[in-house]
């Protein structure tokens, strides 16, 4: 998965726009501005609960085209959140998408990025339409140490997985091999245990499962930053609570595609194991004062968006709309985002908080989750 998706020369995400009607899949921010607006309002509300600490940053993992961040920054500007006390950090490995994001978020496509100081952790920087500093990073570990609003929308589903199956001899890993007769790729089962089989499986009831060590490491890094520097995390993705088995698949031209056929031309994905992410976020680390981070969720997208006011936002937009086609598109977008048969039940929301927020959250639970 890592090689097919992020190979520097021919990786799926590295040199093309894969989003939208002309790409291979559509994400919620591309459907309607309402999605990003409500996420922004939620983040501002939770930041306020924390005492509105400054300086602070919003860090998005895998920002896509930058559409979600653009909608959020517009809302942040309404709350007068901009300037030197607020910055945007984008974790992006694709040079092509980095350029797309800059065109989306910065005043003009012709704007040249400001020079990156030597020795900096970021590889690119620019100024947003609203005056905030935007910096691009290769990895979450490179982000500045400050209060952070973490956002990961459809990020974890693209991280590599290991597929394990239970056979008579115990757990074995499903690997990908080359059939020398026809030179096609094929699945094979490892002869012996592999390092991935060291994953804790003693109480596992499933006969088959997918594990993503990279997802667990990144979640622990996020949790550690939240614990040490302060912050909040919001993860949005399609996934399950540790009960699904075989979800590895490909998408091409908005249709299912065999992952082993024409690698590099289709998106590869697997449902996110939210139970594993919650485990990773709450595990003790080496801090002397460690108390497990708090997690809320998962909740379905339809429930989260409804609770934070998408119906009211739709009414507001329709009331100011004078174009019949635009009004119809708004209603269609609302349905796609919230209908259980569309995205409403497919996507899940998970929130992470530092343990010091426990008493506040007991009194003022996070909207969207209750």
Verbal overview:
With 370 residues, the chain is of the alpha/beta class. It has two domains: 1-160 and 212-363, Rossmann fold (3-Layer(aba) Sandwich); 162-210, no CATH class. The chain contains eleven helices and 16 strands. The strands form three sheets. Strands 1, 2, 3, 4, 5, 10, 14, 15 and 16 form a nine-stranded mixed sheet that branches. Helix 3 (33-49) crosses helix 4 (67-78) and helix 9 runs antiparallel to helix 10 (324-338). It comes from Daphnia lumholtzi. Belongs to the NDUFAF7 family. It catalyses: L-arginyl-[protein] + 2 S-adenosyl-L-methionine = N(omega),N(omega)'-dimethyl-L-arginyl-[protein] + 2 S-adenosyl-L-homocysteine + 2 H(+).
- Tally the helices: 11
Q: Characterize the overall form.
A: globular
Category by helix and strand content: alpha/beta
**Whole-number tally of structural domains:** 2
Major sheet: 9 strands, mixed
Uncertain segments are none
